[in-house]
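Its record is retained below.
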Amino acid sequence: MIVDADPHWFVLRVTYSRSLKVQKILEDKGIRTFIPMRSVRVEKDGKTLRKTVPAVGNLLFARSVQQTLYEHIKSEGEAPITRFLWDRNTGRPLVVPDKQMDDFIRVCQASGDDALFLTRPDAKLTEGARIRVVSGPLAGVEGRVVRIRKSRRVLVDLPGLLSVASTYIPLDLLEVLP
């Protein structure tokens, strides 16, 4: 296994819906993590409650040195619940560039429940001008402009993995990138 000594954003698959548990363990070790979350309504004892749950099942993003995450996985024993997602082209763990991950996190947090998570983006959604948001809470975020549900949004794509579409963005807040 080729191990890089620099911290990167790694994509981890956590089985049996234990991503929040693994997130807490990693954060207690000082590792920065991110799980996209959304609110759902749950009926319990005749009452409707709002509950925050992971938006995409079994995915956890962790920014650390590969060896540290590998040691965590080994510490889980013979039946680990955490695994790296692998890049099929390179045969190495999947790494998300810092800028792309930061944009993804910002869109998830700023859009709240209006964020749309797409695990297999429709081909026509990814066709669009590359843009940068120039003002507002998403200033600096780069992505593609798309129309979803009659609304202009910014789509930030983690290729081959996941995309998130922001809430409505006015045209005057966008600039086209070359």
Summary: Residues 98-111 form the longest helix (14 residues). The chain has a mean pLDDT of 88. Residues 41 and 50 are 5 Å apart (CA to CA). The chain has two domains: 8-96, 98-176.
